[in-house]
Write a structure and sequence with these properties.
11 helices; 38% helix; globular; alpha/beta; two-stranded parallel ribbon; binds pyridoxal-5'-phosphate
């Protein structure tokens, strides 16, 4: 089965094999794996071990996004948030429910966030301490220029929280040149091509304020202090050891492939194959190729009375391709992930399956807008 969702992704058999073992979290062999993971993910983000630490958190990406908001912004602190789509809305909700103030910045549809607009909004409100950013917005499929946007905030003395969950490991990131970034959030199960169950924050440890999070579970300062006291191989509460062992294997494969540039190149090729393929089938991608990112593609739902997303998903599944049975766009759509242990050949096979599935469910008019005649 090809899992073509924007996480969890298709994994390699070696990664799944690493799950099939019993492990003790405090065992010295296992502690070395955890300490190694921290070093390796910090290196992928080009963090400086004197300034940054990789802080793992059990669970999903949203937990680590919330932990970052709570740990770096004080209660009542103000966060500028470009409203790029569904995942920016999630970040806004997490921050508001944690008692932080979100200042929304409107972003025109199908366009990248303009650094000049971010600068203007920050300059107009000196009480905003942080810029929040979704690097690859899963709701639209656009990969925003996070380094340039962070630099714009940095020039005005503001700091940055980066939701890099769907892009880390594929999209470029060099923390050594971006001192304004407080936190980079990601999980094991997207571009690192492992399984779900653990998230990480690459954090500026000198800016962590003990107790500020207002949540023991989500306090990055406490996670950092625990590591300082008990070692980089330790975990505060029970970790998912099989998930961490699988991630270690996934990082071996990441290195063997050639690291971030090679991974990005493969995903770009996947996305291009998919984009050309769906257009050949008469479907309408929601974004022009020029702004389409390499992580996920949203396609307009065909304007045909026979269209039914769940029927389509089921017909595709019978052909060995599994996609999301929901969309995260304002208009009806379906989405296909371009990330995971898949190649352009897999994408070409998926395009053929899309064609056959549409025919099977009786969709004749494939374009997103009603036929002109
Ligand atoms: C997947 C994703 C997350 C985290 O999702 P979880 O379901 O909490 O793991 C956060 N931000 C973006 C942009 C994502 O794509």
């Amino acid at each position: 089965m090809l899992l073509l969702i924007p996480g969890p992704v298709t994994t390699r058999p070696e990664v799944r094999a690493a799950l099939a073992q019993d492990l003790a979290p405090w065992d010295n062999d296992f502690r070395a794996v955890v300490a190694g993971l921290r070093e390796r993910v910090l290196a992928i983000g080009e963090g400086d071990p004197d300034l940054h630490a990789a802080l793992p958190l059990q669970g999903c990406g949203h937990f680590a996004v919330e932990a970052s908001v709570r740990s770096f912004l004080p209660p009542g602190g103000r966060l500028l948030l470009p409203m790029t789509g569904a995942y920016a809305q999630r970040l806004a909700r997490l921050a508001r429910e944690a008692g932080r103030i979100v200042v929304e910045l409107a972003v025109p549809p199908a366009s990248k966030v303009d650094p000049a607009l971010v600068s203007a909004a920050l300059a107009a409100d000196p009480s905003i301490s942080h810029l929040g950013l979704v690097y690859s917005e899963t709701g639209s499929g656009i990969a925003h220029d996070a380094p340039a946007l962070a630099a714009a905030a940095g020039r005005l003395g503001r700091r940055v929280l980066l939701d890099a969950v769907s892009g880390f490991g594929a999209l470029p990131l060099d923390l050594s040149t971006r001192p304004e970034i407080d936190a980079v959030v990601f999980t094991a199960n997207k571009c690192l091509e492992s399984v779900a169950g653990v998230a990480f924050v690459l954090a500026r440890t000198d800016r962590l304020v003990p107790g500020q999070a207002g949540s023991w579970s989500l306090d990055l300062a406490d996670i950092h202090n625990h590591a300082l006291r008990h070692g980089w191989g330790s975990f505060r509460f029970t970790p998912p050891p099989q998930i961490l062992a699988a991630l270690s294997v996934a990082l071996d494969l990441f290195d063997a492939e050639g690291g971030q540039p090679a991974r990005l190149a493969r995903y770009v090729a996947n996305a291009r194959t998919l984009h050309d393929g769906v257009r050949r089938l008469g479907l309408d991608p929601m974004l022009p190729a020029a702004v389409q990112g390499p992580v996920v593609m949203n396609v307009h739902a065909p304007a045909d009375p026979a269209w039914d997303l769940q029927c389509f998903v089921d017909a595709l599944k019978r052909r060995g391709v599994l996609i999301s049975n929901f969309s995260s766009t304002p208009e009806p759509s379906f989405r296909i992930g371009c990330i995971g242990a898949i190649t352009p050949d897999d994408m070409a096979a998926a395009v053929a399956a899309l064609d056959a599935a549409l025919t099977e469910i009786g969709v004749r008019h494939r374009a997103g807008a009603p036929a002109a005649d």
